[in-house]
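In the design runs reported in the main text, the only information available to the sequence generator was the tokenized backbone. The following block is the verbatim input for one such run; it is reproduced so that readers can re-run the procedure and compare outputs position by position.
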């Protein structure tokens, strides 16, 4: 029986797919440095939270597949995996609606001043309503940075609420965006300057990491809100903290930070103009079920020698390791 190491247990429907078909090892730890002995036993590794780097991959000759129950692969050394003939499975499009809904929820929460209103009402401060700081979304502009499945769903939702939609994505044709009734811009600063709400939906890679920085926040409206349901390391957190503390922007809604789980001592956790959630945008019951089942089923298919489409490195099938299939 082949062995599958899971950094952490999957939601039950995913575990049901795996149990009885493979030997399971669950160290409840996703740091490849710390679970290397377990990984050396693995035919497959399902990584929820943590990382697997080149050093670990090179010491795991039996490893045949690495699976991410999601779409982000910044925690996997994909190049090293490809060099060793290891497909990196992803679960694309499954979480698009849930993440877009979460981004919209953060937008609404900020627009309606829900955090302060809730906390003050619980203290008995009914008069907090008389601050008149909440706003309507109709007629406001949302700038969406990244127009993949999540960005497209968010644009549709915001448009339905009467918001104007601005899109930045260098990999999408201007004509395709304008055909949907949205405005296309060529630069991130222009998108930042136009948005009453600026929502980030870009992947973490060498080109984007740390790119949302001081000039970006200086380009935003002082009344603007920043939303991040993508990856924490795309944002320079020190610059974001400064922008919020100095009121260069109005507030932020964050589902991701540089370090997770988030520390309760993090400066962003103490700001009353910041909504923070625990990287839960894709963690709805519906999306999680679909994601973990796709992750588990795809892992088993790879182990059975099938060439599946939902891998981020399809060139891996040219590796000598796959010529026998």
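Verbatim output:
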């Amino acid at each position: 029986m082949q062995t599958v190491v899971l950094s952490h247990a999957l939601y039950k429907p995913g575990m049901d797919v795996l149990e009885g078909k493979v030997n399971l090892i669950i160290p409840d730890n996703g740091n490849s440095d710390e679970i290397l002995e377990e990984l050396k036993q693995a035919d497959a590794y399902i990584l929820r939270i943590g990382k697997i780097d080149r050093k670990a991959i090179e010491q795991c000759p039996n490893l045949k597949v690495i699976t991410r129950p999601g779409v982000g692969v910044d925690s996997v050394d994909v190049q090293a995996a490809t060099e060793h003939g290891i497909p990196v499975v992803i679960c694309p499009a499954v979480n698009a609606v849930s993440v877009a809904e979460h981004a919209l929820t953060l937008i609404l929460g900020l627009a309606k001043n829900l955090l302060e209103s809730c906390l003050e009402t619980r203290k008995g401060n009914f008069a907090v309503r008389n601050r008149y700081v909440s706003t309507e979304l109709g007629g406001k502009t949302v700038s969406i940075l990244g127009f993949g499945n999540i960005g497209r769903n968010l644009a549709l939702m915001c448009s339905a609420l009467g918001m104007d939609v601005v899109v930045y994505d260098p990999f999408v044709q201007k004509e395709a965006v304008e055909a949907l009734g949205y405005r296309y811009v060529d630069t991130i600063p222009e998108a930042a300057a136009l948005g009453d709400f600026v929502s980030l939906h870009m992947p973490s890679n060498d080109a984007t990491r740390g790119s949302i920085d001081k000039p970006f926040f200086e380009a935003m409206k002082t009344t603007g809100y920043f939303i991040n349901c993508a990856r924490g390391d795309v944002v320079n957190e020190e610059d974001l903290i400064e922008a919020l503390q100095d009121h260069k922007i109005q507030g932020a809604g964050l589902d991701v930070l540089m370090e997770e789980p988030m520390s309760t001592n993090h400066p962003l956790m103490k700001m009353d103009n910041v909504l923070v959630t625990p990287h839960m945008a894709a963690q709805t019951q519906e999306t999680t079920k679909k994601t973990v089942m796709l992750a588990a089923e795809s892992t088993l298919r790879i182990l059975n020698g099938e060439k599946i489409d939902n891998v981020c490195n399809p060139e891996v099938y040219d590796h000598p390791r796959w010529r026998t299939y």
